[in-house]
């Protein structure tokens, strides 16, 4: 983790505060914490806001979208209980930050976004970080990715009115999906869905605020 001023003391202090914010929001899984320590958030945020990369807040990225708050990234990642052999689908690549963290923990990550430009920029970050187990694609994630299903874990990083049916169907038995669900911008809950032999279990984790999951592809 390095900052523009390159002051090692200030960098260490920011990193400590970043990890402290994660822990104080309940991110305690050591594997998740070390993945988040390894992946520097700053390069995923272009422009002026990069200076605020280590603060626990969502920030604007291209195409009118946002990079999620680090503590929410941590809680969502932790809820998936990722195993080293897992195949994971992320819907909503955005900056690529969340996918990079998933790629540190899982065998293979597929990430899709409806904005081509975001997918291209995210691919550049994955290359720069030598992350070769991520496949990023422009596609409408409400349909999932049937050709690669089933997935051990699915993470949706945009808010749906209900967990999309194709995603439920593409979850492996024993698999876990996390998805923000809500009818409006203001009231959304992060839902954890576990697929059992006999059906699906739903658990409400915490209130969240995400951009909406929209059908079809974006303009750019
Ligand atoms: N996980 C991202 C943040 C995602 S913001 C990160 O780490 O930076 C939500 C993203 O979901 C946006 O980029 C938006 O374009 C995307 N999105 C919304 N609806 C979608 C859909 N149907 N399919 C794929 N991506 C979608």
Overview of the structural elements:
The protein is of the alpha/beta class. The protein has a domain of 153 residues: Vaccinia Virus protein VP39 (Rossmann fold), CATH 3.40.50.150. 29% of the residues lie in helices and 25% in strands. The strands form 2 sheets. Strands 5-4-3-6-7-8-9 form a 7-stranded mixed beta sheet. The protein has a two-stranded antiparallel ribbon with strand order 1-2. Strand 7 and strand 8 form a beta hairpin. The site of S-adenosyl-L-homocysteine has 25 residues, from strand 2, helix 4 and strand 4.
Q: TL;DR?
A:
This protein is an alpha/beta fold. It has helices spanning 8-24, 30-38, 70-79, 97-105, 116-128, 165-169, and strands at 59-60, 66-67, 87-91, 108-113, 134-138, 151-156, 171-181, 188-196, 199-208.
Describe this protein with a few key phrases.
single chain, 220 residues, alpha/beta, Rossmann fold, 7-stranded mixed β-sheet, two-stranded antiparallel ribbon, 6 helices, 9 strands, 29% helix, globular, binds S-adenosyl-L-homocysteine
The secondary-structure element order is HHEEHEHEHEEHEEE
Proportion of residues in helical segments? 25-40%
- CATH architectural name of the domain at 56-208: 3-Layer(aba) Sandwich
Main beta sheet strand tally, sense and closure: 7 strands, mixed
Number of β-strand runs: 9
CATH fold group of the domain at 56-208: Rossmann fold
The CATH first-level class of the domain at 56-208 comes to Alpha Beta
């Amino acid at each position: 983790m390095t900052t523009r001023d390159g002051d090692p003391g200030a960098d260490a202090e920011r990193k400590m505060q970043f990890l402290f914010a994660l822990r104080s929001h309940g991110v305690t899984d050591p594997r998740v914490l070390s993945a988040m320590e390894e992946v520097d958030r700053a390069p995923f945020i272009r422009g002026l806001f990069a200076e605020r990369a280590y603060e626990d807040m969502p920030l604007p990225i291209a195409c009118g979208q946002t990079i999620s708050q680090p503590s929410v990234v941590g809680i969502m990642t932790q809820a998936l209980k990722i195993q080293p052999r897992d195949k994971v689908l992320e819907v909503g690549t955005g900056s690529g930050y969340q996918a990079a963290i998933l790629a540190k923990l899982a065998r293979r990550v597929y990430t899709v976004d409806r904005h081509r430009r975001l997918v291209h920029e995210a691919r550049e970050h994955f290359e720069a970080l030598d992350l070769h187990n991520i496949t990023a694609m422009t596609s409408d994630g409400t349909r999932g990715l049937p050709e690669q299903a089933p997935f051990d874990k699915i993470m949706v990083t945009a808010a749906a009115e209900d967990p999309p049916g194709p995603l439920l169907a593409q979850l492996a038995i024993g698999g876990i999906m996390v998805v923000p669900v809500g009818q409006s911008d203001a009231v959304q809950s992060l839902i954890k869905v576990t697929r059992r032999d006999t059906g699906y279990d739903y658990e409400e984790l915490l209130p969240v605020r995400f951009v909406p999951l929209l059908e079809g592809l974006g303009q750019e």
